[in-house]
Write a structure and sequence with these properties.
The complex is a heterodimer.
Chain A: H1 2-31, H2 37-45, H3 49-52, H4 57-61, E1 69-72, E2 81-88, H5 92-100, E3 107-117, H6 120-123, E4 130-132, H7 135-141, E5 146-150
Antiparallel strand pairs in A: 1-2, 1-4, 2-3, 3-5
Chain B: H1 5-21, H2 24-31, E1 33-34, E2 40-43, E3 57-64, E4 73-79, E5 84-90, H3 108-123, E6 127-130, E7 147-152, E8 163-175, E9 178-180, E10 198-210, E11 228-229, E12 259-260, H4 274-295, E13 311-318, E14 321-324, E15 328-329, E16 344-351, H5 361-366, E17 376-381, E18 386-391, H6 394-403, H7 419-434, H8 438-452, E19 455-460, E20 468-469, E21 472-474, E22 492-494
Parallel strand pairs in B: 16-17
Antiparallel strand pairs in B: 1-3, 2-3, 3-4, 4-5, 5-11, 6-7, 6-12, 7-8, 8-9, 8-10, 13-14, 13-15, 13-16, 17-18, 18-19, 19-20, 21-22
Helix pairs in contact in B: 7-8
The chains are: A alpha+beta, B alpha+beta.
Chain lengths: 157, 498
């Protein structure tokens, strides 16, 4: 029991250090863009989206600012699958406000290379629709393969 | 309609030149519709009564895109007894003017204020948050840390005044014991660990500003916007300005105004208004009088398969009677219904096991393909629930669908990479986070989106043939203020007809 607790604690510490290291790296990169997340996503992430597409999500996550929430799409004719997930870099409220103002809504949409099965999620304690971006969510999604990375394009709609 | 004779004259000028040069469609696509009746008219000689023979008059006509909540461009028209000139100014072009003191002639502040006044005329905003730290920067405070807002007071000399008393305030916000950036920053963008920023102080100064960008220089940068003559025979320039900055970016900050209107407060929605009651009643009536017998002939739902074909029938208006057609099959993945004409008033289709019992976004958008005679589309769910999407406002539906052309994904759900898809999925997750089941969160967030399109979703629960409207609305307290959770997220509640 003690050992289990020790290993769990070690994992959490190691994971936290890993996250902190990644955040520092992204924070530095963001500074180059005057902490303008929209510019950073446009010019640093979207411009080299080819490098991430076809790769596990983790390859993208290491370059992303802090994710607050995520949301999975749905497939009305097949309740078991979803083909896209939205990563939120701001609160739901901020995202809705920015949509109203037609500004960059601080989200990135990932379309998966193959649809994911949402029956996997409840057993892990994850909600089918998504929720807060937690360590559990990170562990589940990090190896999923990215099909496409997109941002909202107002003019294209 | 505009009452001012000068605005009427300008409308006439626009009409005659459009007949000649046909520019109106381009203009509407680019900057939206003119709000003629919300124009600002300024008389340079300062008399309160004037006619078209006045020495010089300036009219500022606001243009607003269909789904936006701010004025993005103004058409400035100068008239004198001998000539009429006009040009466009876009909201971002204030940056081309000198940022200056209130007393200076035609500053960035003048232009910004002009747009705020137009926003006030069109939308009723009295207050704006300044996002450009250089604007109105003579007020004390720390622009990077504080939220600066501007309030426009009622002019003391009536509609044609060029001077306005403006209050510029520096508001300080705290997140716990820590000073943080204000609205639009720490309380919204996760910079505040507790999720909520509280205003603790407000230092305000009053200025008198002149709004006269029409007579100043035209600024630099951007294309379009040069003065054109309306009396001559040459093609006048009806091209609004193009923002020249970093076009590779979808939303370059340099092409945005340096101020925002306040966050829109959602009006208190009647959870069951007249159109909702009508929708439930008509769906119930038509179901029992026209549809029920045919619905009972659908192939029973098979719980052991997720590949059962969908079935449907259409109902046509034949000499004033609603006549159901034969039951036909669609594939498992849906498909096109056959035999739809302008006489089709209703359709009914099934949702077998494997999918959702309620109408999909593709079903909802498909409503726009029917003629204006079409009334409602029923969905019979495998679990025994029945739904109907009732069209309350056909033109609103058409406008909504046209404004969201890529909203439906290949699987019949919302495309998350569109504004509508993101609004929907965010709303659904808000509901789930609030404790709604994933199915109910989906169903109600669909209903919420449909309502924006003039469509009411009504539902008959298992064992009932009575349809009633379902929906959600934002919770408000007794003072009409939105109720939020500890993270500042608005809370929602059911908005059903009982």
């Amino acid at each position: 029991m003690k050992n289990k607790f020790f290993f769990t604690s070690m994992f959490i510490i190691v994971f936290s250090q890993f996250i902190v290291a990644q955040e520092n790296k992204v924070a530095k990169a963001l500074k180059e863009f005057n902490n303008d997340t929209a510019k950073y996503i446009e010019q640093r992430i979207i411009s080299k989206r080819n490098c991430y597409e076809g790769q596990p999500l983790d390859s993208l996550l290491k370059d992303l600012p802090k994710i607050i929430n995520y949301a999975n799409g749905d497939s009305p004719r097949n309740v078991s699958i979803y083909d896209a997930t939205v990563l939120y870099f701001a609160s739901h409220r901020a995202v809705m406000d920015k949509l109203e103002q037609k500004k960059f809504p601080m989200v990135l949409t990932i379309t998966w290379a193959t649809p994911l099965n949402n029956n996997d999620l409840p057993a892990l304690g994850l909600k089918i629709g998504g929720g807060e971006w937690t360590e559990t969510a990170y562990k589940y999604y990090k190896n999923k393969i990215i099909g496409k990375i997109e941002i909202i394009q107002y003019k294209a709609q | 309609m505009p009452e001012d004779s000068l605005v009427l004259a300008v409308m006439g000028l626009r009409k005659t030149t459009n007949e000649k040069y046909n520019f109106a469609d381009n203009l509407i696509n680019k900057i939206g519709y003119p709000y003629w009746h919300k124009s600002i008219v300024i008389n340079k000689v300062g008399t309160a009564t004037r006619t078209l023979t006045d020495s010089t008059n300036t009219v500022f006509i606001p243009f607003v895109m269909d789904i936006e909540n701010t004025v993005n461009t103004t058409l400035v028209i100068n008239t004198s007894p001998s000539d009429t000139n006009f040009h466009f100014i876009a909201d971002w072009q204030y940056r081309n003017y000198i940022y200056g003191q209130p007393a200076a002639d035609t500053t960035a502040e003048n232009v910004a204020l002009l747009f705020m006044l137009l926003d006030r005329n069109v939308f009723g905003y009295e207050k704006f948050i300044i996002t450009d730290s250089n604007l109105f920067s003579t007020t004390p405070g720390q622009p990077d840390l504080n939220d600066r807002e501007i309030r426009i007071n009622t002019p003391n000399t009536g509609r044609i005044s060029t001077s306005y008393v403006v209050t510029v305030c520096n508001n300080t916000y705290h997140c716990g014991s820590q000073v943080c950036r204000g609205r639009g920053w720490c309380d919204y963008d996760s910079g505040c660990p507790t999720g909520v920023c509280w205003p603790i102080s407000s230092v305000c100064l009053e200025y008198i500003y002149e709004t006269d960008p029409g007579g100043g220089n035209n600024g630099s940068g951007g294309s379009g916007g040069s003065w054109s003559g309306g009396n001559g025979g040459s093609n006048p320039n009806w091209t609004p300005p193009n923002c020249p900055y970093n076009q590779s970016l979808d939303d370059p900050p340099e092409c945005q105004p340096g101020w925002n209107p306040p966050t829109i407060i959602i009006s208190i929605e009647d959870p069951c208004d007249a159109s909702d009651i009508y929708s439930g009643a008509t769906a119930t009536l038509q179901y029992s009088s026209v549809l029920r017998t045919t619905v009972q002939q659908f192939t029973p739902f098979d719980p052991n398969t997720t590949t059962q074909d969908e079935q449907y029938f259409i109902v046509n208006d034949i000499n004033g009677s609603y006549v159901p057609g034969p039951i036909q099959n669609l594939s498992t993945s849906g498909g096109s219904m056959q035999g739809i004409t302008s006489s089709t008033v209703m359709v009914v289709h099934t949702h077998p096991y494997g999918g959702y019992p309620f109408p999909s976004p593709a079903d909802f958008f498909g409503l726009a393909n029917f003629s204006s005679n079409f009334m409602m589309h029923y969905v019979i769910g495998y679990d025994g629930t029945k739904y109907a999407m009732v069209i309350n406002n056909y033109s609103q539906l058409q406008a909504f669908v046209n404004a969201n052309p890529n909203a439906i994904g290949s699987g019949g759900g919302f495309n998350l990479n569109t504004t509508l898809g993101l609004q929907w999925v965010t709303m659904r997750n808000r509901l789930e986070a609030q404790g709604y089941s994933v199915e109910e969160a989906r169903e109600r967030s669909y209903a919420y989106i449909m309502k924006q399109a003039g469509v009411t979703l009504v539902k008959a629960p298992v064992g009932s043939d009575t349809f009633k409207k379902i929906g959600i609305k934002q919770q408000v307290d007794q003072g009409g203020n939105p109720v939020v959770n500890s993270n500042g997220e608005p809370l929602y509640e059911n908005a059903d007809c009982n």
